[in-house]
Amino acid sequence: MNPSGAPPTAGPLRAGTRGSPLALVQTRTFLRLLAAVPGAGDSQEVIIATTGDAVQDRPLADIGGKGLFAKEIHEALLDHRIDCAVHSLKDLETELPPGIVLGCTLTREDARDVLILGDTCGSLDSAAPFGALPRGALVGTSSVRRQAQLLHARPDLRVASIRGNVQTRLRKLRDGECQASLLAMAGLHRLRMDVPNAVALDPEIMLPSAAQGIIGITIRRDDTALRDLLAMIEDPASRTVATAERAMLATLDGSCRTPIGAHARLLPDGSLILNGLVARVDGSYLLKRTLSGSPDDAFRIGVELGASLRAEAPADLFA
User: Fold this and answer.
1) 3-state SS string over 19-64?
2) By C-alpha distance, which of 74, 75, 15, 6 is closest to 230?
3) Is the dihedral of CA 36, 246, 213, 16 positive or negative?
4) Residues labelled as active-site residues
5) DSSP letters of 273-290?
6) Which of 57, 177, 242, 243 is the most exposed place for a label (fewest CB within 10 A)?
7) Could you give the CA distance from residue 220 to residue 260 in angstroms, rounded to a whole number?
8) Considering the entire predicted model, what is its pTM?
9) Residues 242-281: tens digit of each pLDDT
10) Could you tell me if 200 and 124 are in contact, meaning their C-beta atoms sit under 8 angstroms apart?
11) CB 289 within 8 A of CB 304
C-alpha cells in the first residue's frame, strides 16, 4: 500500500470492478449515470482479479466468505490505484475495511430470485413453482439461503453446489449437471438475457438476499468531493431499503454458512416494511419475522428485526 497515502496525478476517474460480464455491465451502467452529471469529467473501468472469482471449486464459506469478492478491489482503493469501486451490494460485507464507506446506491433492479428448469422438469406454475420439480430432482445453487428455503418447501429435493458467473451456471444446467437452478433476476435483466423455462419467485416463496438487485459504490472515507458527486446519482429509496436489510444482516452477524434472507419495501403510505429470515441449511428449521416503521428509522428497524430473529432462533444457527 502507498505509505504516503498521496493520491495520484489528476486524470479520469477510475472505477474498480470484477471482470465478470455482469460486473462489467453494472460498472458501465454506473459510469453512464456519472457521465451525465455536470462536472463529472472522464472515467474508466479498471478490472481487478479477486480471490472470490479465482477459486471456483469450493464453497464460498470455505475460502473466507463474500468479502473475498472485494478484498483486492478495496486494497486498490486504499492504495489510490482506483478512485471508487462498483459492487453487487449483496456480495459486499456489512463491515467495510477502515477508511472505506458506501458512497452511493443505484436504483434497485428486480430483487427476486428466479427458478430455471431443465428439460426433465414439468410445466411451471408461478403460484406453486417448486411443483414443477420431479421428486428427488437435483438443483444447482451456491447459496445456502436458497438451499434452505428450497429444502424447507421440498425436503425430497437434492442440492448441488455450483459457482461461477451467470453464463457458467446456465451452461451447467444445459449440460445436465443439475435439473434446475436458482439465480437473481436482477442479473438476468442487466445482462438482457431471456431465459426459457424460468419463473420469478415471489419473496413470500423465496426471500431474497440482503441488498439483492442493488449496485453499490464504495469510496475512500476522506474523498468528500467524490461523495458529493455521487450524491447526484444516489437513489434514496435504494439507500433506505439497503440500510434496513444490511443492518439486519450485520446484527445477526451471520457467515456465508448461515441462511439469512432480508427484503425491505417502501409502501404506498410511506412506511417501510422489512421481512427477515433465518434457517438451517438443510431446511429443517426456518423462521420468518416482519417489522415496519418510518423510513427514517431504517437502521433501527434492521437492528431490531435482526435482534428478534437471533433471540428466537437456536444459537447453533450462528455458530
Assistant:
1) CCHHHHHHHHHHHHHHHCCCCCCCEEEEECCCHHHHCCCCCHHHHC
2) 15
3) positive
4) 91
5) EEEEEEE-TTSS-EEEEE
6) 57
7) 29
8) 0.90
9) 999 999 999 998 667 899 999 999 999 999 999 999 999 9
10) no
11) no
